[in-house]
Amino acid sequence: MVLEINSENFDNEVLAYNGVMVVDFFANWCGPCRKLAPILEEVEGELKNVKFAKINTDENIEMAKKYQVSGLPTLMVFKNGEAVERIVGLMPKSSIITNIEKHI
Question: Which residues have a catalytic role annotated?
Answer without folding.
Answer: 30, 33
